[in-house]
Amino acid sequence: MPDKFTALNGELYEYLVTHRSERDPLLAELAKETEAALGPISLMQIAPEQGAFMTLLARVIGARSAVEVGTFTGYSALSIARGLPDDGRLLCCDINDEWTAIARRYWQKAGVAQKIELRLGPALDTLRALPTTTQFDMAFIDADKSNYRNYYEEILARLRPNGLILFDNVLWMGQVLDKATTDENTRAIQALNDFLPTDRRVDTVMLSISDGLTIVRKRAAVEMR
Are 180 and 127 in contact (CB under 8 A)? Predict the structure, then answer.
């Protein structure tokens, strides 16, 4: 069979982005402020279609408890929180008070601040301090790439069966194809990408959303026998 994918140009991407139902004007405002305030660093923010997808996914699986590693200015957290019920909870892990101050303002504006707990500090410390009885329904990992595998292990141990973990930037702007790279971040993503399909604890699929999004489902114990 021929390769079955449609390469996007600017015009086709704009068509894709506009044909979605999840169109929150506050998210657009947040994206503009992030770009104006932080310039090129704003590229760390997730794409609008990715945010809409994450909102939909949280609703589809009936997520009530979620965790995010890497909050930046709050776009992804707001997207996830929108998909949680009124009594849902999202734990956000980040180390930057300046960036997350922007996030806090927009969570308040959006009326979801009561769903979100932000903990500033190394995310591994935050995750490891959680009780082992913690049961997340959904997780989003978008932070330092060298620790992706560590974040994965800590969250997977606290994820309910059939819960989902999402990894951002798994295509790393195409650099994952560079087998000779010595870049630490690229090698970490390559290693994770190679490992996940072999992990018998989960099912995994990689999607070409934005810079690549991998979705992992935790198998039930009976599936791992």
Answer: no
CA distance 192 to 195: 5
CA separation, residue 6 to residues 1, 12, 53, 85, 214 (Å): 15, 10, 19, 35, 19
How buried is 26 (Cβ within 10 angstroms: 0-12 exposed, 13-18 middle, 19+ buried)?
middle
- 74: Cβ–Cβ under 8 A, 6 or more apart, which residues? 30, 100, 102, 103, 104, 106, 107
Question: Cβ(78)–Cβ(28) under 8 Å?
Answer: no
* Beta strands 213-218; 202-207: pairing state: antiparallel
Q: Which two tokens stand for residue 98?
A: 């300046």
Residue 132 CA, distance from chain mean position: 22
Confidence (pTM): 0.95
pLDDT digits (tens, 9 = 90+) for 44-101: 999 999 999 999 999 999 999 999 999 999 999 999 999 999 999 999 999 999 999 9
68 touches 80 (CB < 8 A): yes
How wide is the angle at C-alpha 219 spanned by C-alphas 218 and 222, nearest 5°? Answer: 155
Q: What residue has token string 């114990």? A: 221
Cα–Cα distances in Å, from 221 out to 18, 125, 161, 224? Answer: 41, 27, 8, 5
Q: What is the set of domains in the chain, with CATH numbers?
A: 10-224 (3.40.50.150)
Q: Across the strands, what pairs with 92?
A: 68, 118
Task: Return mean pLDDT, the chain.
Answer: 95
Q: Which helix (H) or strand (E) holds 205?
A: strand 202-207
| 3-state SS assignment for residue 214 | strand
